[in-house]
Design brief:
This protein is mainly β. The chain has no helices and eleven strands. Strands 2, 4, 5, 6, 9, 10 and 11 form a seven-stranded mixed sheet that branches. A four-stranded antiparallel sheet has the order 1-3-8-7, with no helix packed on it. Strand 9 and strand 10 form a beta hairpin.
């Protein structure tokens, strides 16, 4: 069973930055991709950013230019650097690891951006 543990959430003012971390209990290069999802109040969960096994990254339009996903293969950890945060970024952020026919979720970390 794969475990994903997120950290780094918190309360920040608009325009500030946070860095989320997701530590995996397995070799992250064995996953098809790893990603960060978020679910804001009254909203559906959405994929914010993902990093594919090859290293290619993808972002939802609303965070392009502000968020950066990266990984440290030696530490089996994926990061989400979030800059220029906006109140609309307030959500629970979940780490996700994708394997063929199965996916794994972290417990989530709260990010709150005050105006």
């Amino acid at each position: 069973q794969v475990q994903l543990v997120e950290s780094g959430g918190g309360l920040v003012q608009a325009g500030g930055s946070l860095r989320l971390s997701c530590a995996a209990s397995a070799n992250i290069v064995s996953f098809n991709y790893m990603g960060w999802f978020r679910q804001g109040p009254g909203k559906q969960r959405e994929l914010v950013a993902k990093i594919i096994n090859s290293g290619t990254t993808n972002y939802v339009d609303s965070v392009k230019g502000r968020f950066t996903i990266s990984r440290d293969n030696a530490k089996n950890t994926v990061f989400l650097q979030m800059n220029s945060l906006e109140p609309e970024d307030t959500a629970i952020y979940y780490c996700y690891a994708d394997k063929t026919l199965k996916g794994y979720w972290g417990q989530g970390t709260q990010v709150t951006v005050s105006s």
